[in-house]
Specification:
- With 185 residues, this protein is α+β, with helices and mostly antiparallel strands.
- The protein folds into two domains: 38 residues, GTP Cyclohydrolase I, Chain A, domain 1 (Orthogonal Bundle), CATH 1.10.286; 130 residues, GTP Cyclohydrolase I, domain 2.
- 42% of the residues lie in helices and 27% in strands.
- The protein is built from eight helices and seven strands, in the order αααββββαβαβαβαα.
- The strands form two sheets. The protein has a five-stranded mixed β-sheet with strand order 5-2-3-6-7, sandwiched between helices.
- Strand 2 and strand 3 form a beta hairpin.
- Helix 1 packs across helix 2 and helix 4 runs antiparallel to helix 5.
- The longest helix is centred in the C-terminal third of the chain and has 16 residues.
- It is elongated and about 60 Å long.
- The chain starts with a helix and ends with a helix.
- Bound molecules: zinc ion.
- Zinc ion binds next to loops.
Length: 185
């Protein structure tokens, strides 16, 4: 990402919204915004393989692995405003399990892009499935969207829930129900 170019664009944006980019408080804002966006969109410049970095372990247990309440911060692609909340992940391993911290890093990799919540949820599920060859994967995400909350659209307190289920979580209702009960306990 060209930080200088982005900062110049932010400076122009400040002028267009009626601000004075040369006033004291705003003088370094374009650079700060550029650096913030570099971080908030860093998922475009990362590879899952580098994140997982061989942290896939052999396991012969095939019980359900659950990781609840992973914090999510992303930007909606329609307004470039934040949406944020919690992500819950479950999967039933066949032979491979992922280190727990890697699940959170996969969430961040896809969240640090312009997103819609549905796609973000599906991409996380697919990535876990592809890397572990699990029997099944379930991802549920509960987020609040600032583009709805700040702009006076209805439902200011609403939480949007999306889910993506693959393999046995998709095909087998008892498995899916067990997952839903475990994440909402
Ligand atoms: Zn939006």
């Amino acid at each position: 990402m060209n930080l200088e170019r982005v900062a110049a664009l932010v400076r122009e944006l400040l002028v267009e919204i009626g601000e004075d980019p040369d006033r004291e408080g705003l003088r370094r804002t374009p650079e700060r915004v550029a650096r913030a966006y570099e971080f908030l969109t860093s998922g475009y410049r990362q590879k899952v393989a580098d994140i997982i970095n061989n942290a896939v372990f052999e396991s012969h247990a095939n019980n359900m692995i659950i990781c609840r309440d992973i914090e999510v911060y992303s930007l909606c692609e329609h307004h470039m405003l934040p949406f944020f909340g919690k992500c819950h992940i479950g999967y039933i391993a066949r032979k491979k399990v992922l280190g727990l911290s890697k699940l959170a890093r996969i969430v961040d990799l896809y969240a640090r892009r312009l997103q819609i919540q549905e796609r973000l949820t599906a991409q996380i599920a697919r990535e876990i499935m592809d890397n572990t060859k699990a029997e099944g994967v379930g991802v549920v995400m509960e987020c609040r969207h600032l583009c709805m909350m700040m702009r006076g659209v209805e439902k200011q307190n609403s939480v949007m829930t999306t889910s993506s289920v693959l393999g046995s979580f998709h095909d087998d209702a008892p498995t899916r129900n067990e997952f839903m009960q475990l994440i909402h306990r």
